[in-house]
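REQUEST FORM: STRUCTURE PREDICTION
Request ID: SP-0412
Submitted by: Lab K.M.
Chain count: 1
Length (residues): 207
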Amino acid sequence: MQVGEKYFIIYDHDIDVDAPIGADLVGASLWDCAITLAHYLPIYARSHPFSGKRAIEIGAGTGLPGLVAASLGARTTLTDLPHLLPGLRRNVEANAAALSDEDVRVLPLEWGTEDLSAVGEDRPFDLVLMSDLLYNVSAVPNLCRTLRAVSDRGSEILMAYELREGTTECFRVLREWGFGWVKIGNEELDPVWQSEDIGIFRVTYLK
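STATUS: Completed
RESULT:
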C-alpha cells in the first residue's frame, strides 16, 4: 500500500500452531488501527519532523506504523513477543527500499517485564507508537508499566484505538496509571484512511 509518498509491502505472519493462540492471532495480522495510524504519521511529521528521533512501536504486530516512522527518518525499534519477531523481520526486509539509512531494530518486549536491557540504550524514546493495544483490560497495567519504562514527559506518544464492546474500560486504567489523552480530530487525519470507530490519541503524562 502507499503511505504518504512511499509504498510498503506488509505480510501477515505465519501462524505457529504451537504458539499461544490468542497472542498469535492478535499480532499476526495487519489491523485497521495500524493502517489508520500509519497514514496519519506523514501528516504528523509535517509539524513534528522524525529525522534524528528515536521511535519505538510497542506490540508492533506486522510493524506498519513503525516502518512508516522509519521511512520518515526516525531510528526505529519494533517490539513484540518473541514468536512474532520472525514475521516482523520479514517485513523490515521487504521494505528496505522505503526505509531511511538508519537500521530498524526488531527486539522482544513483553509488557510489564522489568528487564528492558535490550532497548535500554535508547530510553526514553522520543516517539512511542501503539495501535490496537487496548483490547484486554487485564493487560493494560502491564502495558502502562512498559509505557512508563520507555518514555517520559518529553516523549510524543501516539495511540490508535478501535471502539469495541467493553474495551473503553481500558481508558480508566490508563488514567489510574497517570496518563491522559487528547483525541485528534478527524479533520487532521488522512481524509481516506479514517473511521468513526477508530480514534488516534496523543497520550500525555498527568503525574
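NOTES: The chain has six helices and nine strands.
Reviewed by: T.R.
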